[in-house]
């Protein structure tokens, strides 16, 4: 894995542990030589992640619509800032530049981004693995709801099992790497595109 797309909050939230987690993830990815691809923000958990990875000598690729850059929301010191015209293009560029995707604590935007790339994988539009860093059980309620949806027959158990989930970054990276090594299975009878 050369680059990991990280979806997380652009705000700080109430729990300082979330900022500590973002900082730890940024530093550890840099230590492992894994570049960060993220939404390009300079504030909130996004900014903490980027600052930590940069301080540790890591590569940080930010992706942001021009209108948000013009409002001075972009991190000014990332390795590379890719600008685009829309949120749709932002997500497509992030997907193009990453080998896998992970969600850290975040809100509506984080959920929208991680669910989109997960559904793309399930549909065979890419074969890049998707995961949740469930530190301190942050995502446990959501994961419980997903199991309920699977139990109702509206989400395939195999799709849910394909999701990488771990309480710590080393475990999550191991799970993502294991999925990268798997031979991708075609979706709905179609041949899955190559990574």
From TrEMBL:
InterPro entries: LOG (IPR005269), LOG_fam (IPR031100). Keywords: Cytokinin biosynthesis, Hydrolase. Pfam families: Lysine_decarbox (PF03641). Its EC number is 3.2.2.n1. GO terms for biological process: cytokinin biosynthetic process. It is an enzyme of class 3 (hydrolase). It catalyses: 9-ribosyl-trans-zeatin 5'-phosphate + H2O = trans-zeatin + D-ribose 5-phosphate; N(6)-(dimethylallyl)adenosine 5'-phosphate + H2O = N(6)-dimethylallyladenine + D-ribose 5-phosphate. One of its GO terms (cellular component) is cytosol. GO terms for molecular function: cytokinin riboside 5'-monophosphate phosphoribohydrolase activity. Belongs to the LOG family. PANTHER family: LOG FAMILY PROTEIN YJL055W (PTHR31223). This is Cytokinin riboside 5'-monophosphate phosphoribohydrolase.
């Amino acid at each position: 894995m050369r680059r990991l797309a990280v979806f997380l909050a652009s705000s700080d939230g109430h729990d300082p542990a979330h900022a500590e987690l973002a900082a730890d993830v940024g530093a550890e990815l840099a230590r492992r030589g894994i570049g960060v691809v993220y939404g390009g923000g300079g504030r909130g958990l996004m900014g903490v992640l980027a600052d930590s990875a940069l301080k540790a000598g890591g590569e940080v690729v930010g992706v942001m619509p021009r209108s948000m850059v013009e409002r001075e929301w972009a991190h000014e010191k990332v390795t590379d800032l890719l600008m685009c015209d829309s949120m749709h293009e932002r997500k497509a560029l992030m997907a193009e530049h990453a080998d896998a995707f992970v969600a850290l604590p975040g809100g509506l935007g984080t959920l929208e981004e991680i669910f989109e790339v997960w559904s793309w994988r399930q549909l065979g539009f890419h074969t890049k693995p998707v995961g949740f860093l469930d530190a301190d059980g942050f995502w446990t309620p959501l994961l419980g709801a997903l199991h309920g949806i699977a139990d109702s027959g509206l989400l395939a158990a195999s799709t849910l099992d394909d999701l990488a989930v771990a309480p710590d970054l080393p475990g999550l990276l191991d799970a993502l790497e294991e999925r990268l090594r798997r031979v991708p299975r075609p979706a709905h009878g179609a041949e899955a595109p190559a990574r």
